[in-house]
Design a protein that fits this description.
Length: about 325
């Protein structure tokens, strides 16, 4: 018996790596999602800095390509796309701004006020205005989901809220920044100085041209705040997190650790007592937190299920889009 199809119209705001990844996975997985979940995902609008494209019958591949090349764009603001184009889900994929959350915060608020569900990879609005945006979502009876904002393809929030429902969460600790993990892994394996490995990471596109938010621990701190607010029901800000980055780690320190059976990793920790900390830490080589390269890892300590560790890719457009797609499907299943 064929499953009845429900059309779900989607807009994407922000068409960088993540936004493009979302468009790609919706195209790639459209038929499978329709068969398995009865959801006909249709992208009806995309808004970017350079303009917008809208087709309420569904954007074609050619129209989406036009956004990349700048052809036939409409002079419609992202806010107007969110407010005026008929759709059910707004995907917010603009870059994170941890100073004031903009423009993502305005996009999220506008979508909720316009009675759209929101799925976002943007850490800014969730870290800075968690209470405001979640209360508005509840008031409007809409879903606000943000799995991609913390672990990329690695599920933490949905794992806790769904699979571990009924458990008391004692603490969460882990590696939440792939750039730092890559740098520390390479330094340890090749006995290379920090500056050399940073330049290598930038050349490979693993580190940004300005990597300060990663290497100084700010990105990890922001993700911790999202976990603290969404899982432990705190109302905290990243400036309240005790943060130490990796810039002072030397090959000598890594060798000393290695000789004693340890590795050095940048670990973020949050517990139910309100402690939030980001710092390089000695991790035993046999510990589940000892993962290499750009991988992320999180150990969730619970009162019933004990410790559960998840490992996955924390960054990358398709990986982030995987989490966004899962959130969209989760709204309707």
């Amino acid at each position: 018996m064929s499953r009845k199809q429900e059309t779900v119209r989607v807009t994407i705001v922000g068409f960088g790596y993540v936004g493009r990844g979302v468009a790609e996975v919706i195209k790639r997985k459209h038929d499978a999602i329709a068969r398995k979940h009865g959801i006909d995902l249709t992208i009806v609008g995309i808004a970017d800095l350079y303009g917008s494209i809208v087709n309420e019958n569904g954007l074609s591949e050619e129209e989406i390509m036009n956004l990349r090349t700048g052809k036939n764009l409409k002079d419609i603001s992202s806010r107007d796309v969110i407010k005026e184009v008929e759709h059910e889900v707004m995907v917010e994929a603009t870059p994170t701004n941890v100073d004031n959350g903009e423009p993502g915060l305005t996009h999220v608020l506008t979508a909720l006020e316009s009675d759209r569900h929101v799925v976002t990879s943007n850490k800014g609005p969730i870290a800075l205005e968690y209470k405001r945006v979640t209360e508005l979502a509840a008031k409007r009876g809409k879903e606000l989901r943000f799995e991609a904002s913390v672990g990329g393809a690695m599920p933490i929030i949905s794992l806790v809220r769904e699979n571990l429902a009924g458990n008391g969460i004692i603490s969460i600790e882990g590696i939440l920044n792939g750039t730092c993990n890559y740098i520390l892994t390479r330094m340890a394996e090749e006995k290379l100085p920090y500056e050399h490995v940073l330049k290598e990471a930038q050349g490979l596109g693993i580190a940004e041209a300005d990597p300060s938010k990663d290497i100084e621990g700010i990105d990890t701190a922001v993700k911790l705040v999202i976990l603290a607010n969404s899982i432990f029901d705190m109302n905290t800000a990243y400036k309240e997190v005790e943060v130490t980055g990796i810039t002072e780690i030397t090959p000598e320190a890594l060798k000393l650790a290695d000789d004693e059976g340890y590795v050095i990793k940048l670990i973020g920790e949050v517990d139910r007592d309100g402690s939030l900390k980001v710092a390089p830490r000695l991790v035993p080589k046999g510990n589940p937190l000892n993962v290499g390269g750009t991988l992320n890892v999180a150990t969730i300590k619970t009162d019933l299920a004990g410790e559960i560790t998840v490992i996955g890719k924390g960054a990358g457009p398709i990986e982030a889009a995987s989490a966004i797609l899962s959130d969209i499907i989760g709204i309707y299943t």
